[in-house]
């Protein structure tokens, strides 16, 4: 995708040395577009843990490159690195998927061969994600084209950030939107702010604006109201893990959007790559681990002041404690369908196995 007319991926090898890794520090967006150099696997782990990179597919790709950095440093530390990288974020299954791919690729290799193989595997994971997301866009585009054919304009509501900043390129839920815009469809996006970290207001709005897509930032609680008044034609969200039975884990607040969509007859679609499927889990509510993040993300807010300074201020009453579950699970019964790189399907076990028989 592009920033100021220049094409970027969200993770790439440093062009100067060819072995360190570059990312965009997402904690500094949208106020500053700041490429960050990762030269050790611990820096990669820190970037994932602190959400300098976030988004399930991108976490997996950066973790894979983190393993490659570790193998360049000391190929004998493979097991330690895999274990510690896996502990950085608990909910997104893509992280463990990417680490398992590196483990399978490297474990039986002589230590001297591991670095080269690890870099090759990380590159394959990144390229696969970019192509997968492009195909998700193609498979989701007809949903928007059908609405545009009926109504002339498409109003999409999305939650959190599921664009190219959350993946290697294109995005999941935003990929069909970008393709619709590029085809000339009249697309407008309602962008949930996505408290407490404001990934919608900071990242999705930044992406859409950079690409020229019409959008409006709204408070997280506005979605139901907009649906009641016919202002939402479709809800498109991404996901961090989809179970065998079609339950969907995504950013906290997604479940409430699905409930509002069901009550108002608005289609609720979830876009995902194959790496987000977890066929070992049946009951998402009972079995998917939900990351609990620092309460300060709820009590404090970061923004830019009128004179251009980026400041963090407290908005909650002093002495009040805060809980901060980062994700929730939307049961499959509330999901209209899933958009994958292999096509669209219902959110149930049989439909998923039709698309992915090898995962049976």
Describe the structure.
With 360 residues, the protein is α/β, with parallel strands linked by helices. It has two domains: 2-128, translation initiation factor eif-2b, domain 1 (Four Helix Bundle (Hemerythrin (Met), subunit A)); 139-359, Rossmann fold, CATH 3.40.50. It has helices at residues 41-49, 56-73, 78-86, 93-106, 111-151, 175-182, 199-211, 223-228, 254-264, 284-287, 296-299, 349-355; strands at 2-3, 6-7, 11-13, 21-24, 35-38, 154-158, 187-192, 214-218, 234-237, 241-243, 248-251, 268-271, 277-278, 300-304, 310-314, 327-330, 337-340, 343-345. Helix 2 runs parallel beside helix 4 (93-106). The longest helix is centred in the middle third of the chain and has 41 residues, at 111-151. The two termini are 34 Å apart. The mean pLDDT is 96.
Summarize the structure.
This protein is α/β, with parallel strands linked by helices and 360 residues long.
